[in-house]
Amino acid sequence: MSSKLLLPLIAGFALCVAGSATARAESTSSDQAASQATDSQTTPPKKKNKKKSEKEKKHPDKTELDKAERGNPNSVIYKSRKNKAPNPTNEQIQAGETGVPASVDYGNRKVSPHNPTNAEINAAEKGNPDAVQPQK
Q1: 42 in Cβ contact with 50 (< 8 Å)
Q2: Interacting residues of 132 by C-beta distance below 8 A, sequence separation 6+
Q3: 91 touches 83 (CB < 8 A)
Q4: Whole-angstrom distance between the N-terminal and C-terminal Cα of the chain?
């Protein structure tokens, strides 16, 4: 390898190793904190007669944004929203489209008596870059 490529390659490898060592150190410290939290959760809580205001919060892990969204009908997680109606069946769709001239299944559509000639089609396509060009 040339010396110009070797130095950046070694520097990049050193950064990767340093970054993974830092991440590993952070994960072990968070694992220790998590194990302490699970140890405290395994002990049964003592029941005390507390007033309603002194009880633990109902949603302690919610962010301020999540708490602000509670009760908002425009929120994604609004639980009191009524479920929408079920999707219509094919029969219901077909029944709604019968007799509508815009429907593809409309049987009373008049067929044009005019069949365009090749000259008319080519004249309409003149200047269109996507048109198929006739071979000469």
Answers
A1: no
A2: 125
A3: no
A4: 57
